[in-house]
């Protein structure tokens, strides 16, 4: 019995997409020229799909600290945080993040995925209820399946739907509501104030994933909860180093006095190796830089608004009415056009993410652009022009805005 046979439909679906030269799963960055440019198969390409929102991948202090840590501590820790894998750098990073958020405690994980997996599966136990947004990231769904809690979904970003679900649950049961600040596919922001206020009215604990909002939302870059002044309603804030922080890793901050017990019970924290010292050192410097990066934040928002307005004026259908984040998603009519569009745009020298059903909300066919604070205004204009040119090449008719 061939255990891979069950994936025949996936193989068939993938083979049905008419790529001529390359496909989104085979892109190789031969050389990264800067935060915003790379050589892909010999072509000079503008990167507009990297999640490198704050452009921290080449931040000089982060680079220098990583190099020093490599020389002093070696290439890896070869152990779990609860055995031999906690170095001074890990403790320093946890303090830096706790201070950045103004919270008592921080736990650093090896990825953001593991942070969600660990917290969600551990916090909500057998007798508890886990209430999640229907459009949650895979790491939230996977945390829900790994744990023993009863899972209840509510309609995306809908506080009334959340309230309806909460109302039906036993008053005295443990409840954890999980939401995200910015949703990664469409780039839409959550109405966190309403969602968190409802949650608190029903005595639920709350976890907010700020993976796609840390860095540029809020006056110091802590995320949507900071922006909306509702951090006091968050029991746990989760984040990642793989986007605005420019490296890899994940974290959770909390003011809960017993938060540290999670280090002894959270399996995705305990049963995996800790982050390499070089990564820890660069994350620490990048977060310090984010805290004082007001100008970068402002330029990133200018870029986002410019790209959104330019594509809208050209007649593209966009996933949000205005730029709610540096993620600007263009909706295309079907997977075949999406496939041709994505490949033609890449040949034109612009890399974006193609996202199709079932990875997208509502089964949309998306060209998902994500901007960087280091994109120049000229690069943003070039992205817009190349989108327009690509639309003409693939025969996509655009409805010009009045
Ligand atoms: N949460 C959300 C909302 C995400 O989009 C992602 C990654 N795309 C993660 C968590 C996981 O982050 P990491 O890349 O650090 O595993």
UniProtKB/TrEMBL annotation:
Residues 49-387 form the Aminotransferase class I/classII large domain. It comes from the Bacteria. One of its GO terms (molecular function) is transferase activity. Its cofactor is pyridoxal 5'-phosphate. The keyword Glycosyltransferase does not apply. Keywords: Pyridoxal phosphate, Transferase. Pfam families: Aminotran_1_2 (PF00155). Belongs to the class-II pyridoxal-phosphate-dependent aminotransferase family. This is Serine palmitoyltransferase. It comes from Eilatimonas milleporae.
